[in-house]
C-alpha cells in the first residue's frame, strides 16, 4: 500500500495525518468525524471555538461542503485555486461537522497547491479539516521535521513533501455577506484580490475567531520577539546584550517571497539556539506577501 493510500485509511479510521501544503504543513482529520476533530483540537491544544480550514481536492467540491455559495466565491475559486486562498461560506451540516467550525454556521474552504496534499485529498474523497500541524499559537511548521519536533507521537502519520513553497498561511476571505471581507492576509495578495473583485476589500483582520490565526497574539516562538527597523538593529542588539540577554536577528531579505519562505524556519532556528530575544526586521515592501510577513511578525511580537 502506498503512503497516500495508507494516510487516507488513517483518516477514514478517525486518525490524524500531517501533510504538506504550499503554505504550511497541516494536521488533518476527517471533516465529518466529530470524535476525530475533538482529538485534533486536543492535540493542537486549540480552543474549541477557534475554527479550522477544510481542504478539498478541487473547486467543484465547494458546493458539496458549502451551501448558498455566491457567484463571487466561485469566481475567486476559479482564479486562485489551487492556491493559498481560503473562502468562508455557509456550511452544509451533513458534510462539515460543527466541531470543525467552533459551532458556527460557516466554514473556511480551500484547495491546496501541493501534489502530496492533492493526492491525499483525491484518495480520501472528502473534506480534510486541517489547521497548521503545531501547538496552538506557536510557530507554524514548514517541513516534516518541524511537525515531528512539535507533535511527536501525537500525530498518527506524517507525509513528507519537502519545504513549503509559500511559507505563510493562506489569505482568508469571507464571502457570506453582501461584499467580500478580508479576514486574514496571506499567500494571495490584497492587490490580486482587488483586481479580481474590482475594488479593495474591506478588512476585518483583528481578533476575529471566525477565522484561524487572527488572534492578536499568534505565530509565536518561545523567545520574545521585538520588531525593529534595519537602521535601529545594531544599537538595539547592543543594548539588549549589555543587559545580559542573548539576542538573535531575523533580517529582512530584499525578496519578500524569500522572507516568507524562510520566516518560520528562521524563528524556529533561533529558538533552538536558546536566545532570549529575537530582533525581527520588518520587510521593506509590505505589498503582496510582504503584508503577510509583517502581520505574522506583529502577532508574534504581541505574544510577550
Explain what you see.
By secondary structure, the protein is an alpha/beta fold. The chain contains ten helices and 14 strands. The strands form two sheets. Strands 1, 2, 3, 4, 5, 6, 7, 8, 9, 10 and 11 form an eleven-stranded mixed sheet that branches. A three-stranded parallel sheet has the order 12-14-13, with helices on both faces.
Oligomer: single chain
CATH class of the largest domain: Alpha Beta
Number of domains: 2
CATH architecture classification name of the largest domain: Alpha-Beta Complex
Name the helix and strand elements from N-terminus to C-terminus, one letter apiece. HEEHEHEHEEHEHEEEHEEHEHEH
What is the terminal-to-terminal distance?
A: 46 Å
Structural class, from secondary structure content? Answer: alpha/beta
Strand content: 15-25%
**CA-based shape:** globular
Mean pLDDT: 95
Query: How much is the radius of gyration in Å?
Result: 19 Å
Extended strand count:
14
Largest sheet: 11 strands, mixed
* Low-pLDDT segments, ≥5 res: none
* SS summary, helix count: 10
CATH topology title of the largest domain: DHBP synthase
The CATH superfamily of the largest domain turns out to be: DHBP synthase
